[in-house]
Amino acid sequence: MRYVSNNAENLPRFVPAGDYLLTVLEAAETVSQNGTEMIKLKLEVEGHGVRLFDYLVASESSYWKIDTFRKAIGEAVTEGEEVELVAANLEGRQGYARLRIEDYQGKRNNKVDMWLTKRPASRPLAPKSAPIVPAAKKENDNEPF
Questions:
Q1: How many domains does the chain have?
Q2: Is 126 a member of any domain?
């Protein structure tokens, strides 16, 4: 196999601030610096190859963020409902988020500014195309299928 080396340092590290579809590549249950349960999300910006992290921390002051994330990935959220969020069940899920650019240790990266519970107006659904109907076969057509 032959290929041309693509130095990982040259890969895109961020996209312009805005609304993007994100996919959860990995989700891991862990503990925050202050000992609170949390889920670390490794995310990819669809169509751009940019990767970033977000954190769902199980502290009362962050429940709103977990609810917003769940709504963004299409889950129903009921106020007062006790929920067991399992990291492994989040992998592969998609949702829209507003990203910002942040400088960290001299490098620019994206951070989730907020999860979006409605599809951004700038990202409308693709129009449905007409169904594909096979062409009628001609009587003298010699094709074997």
A1: 1
A2: no
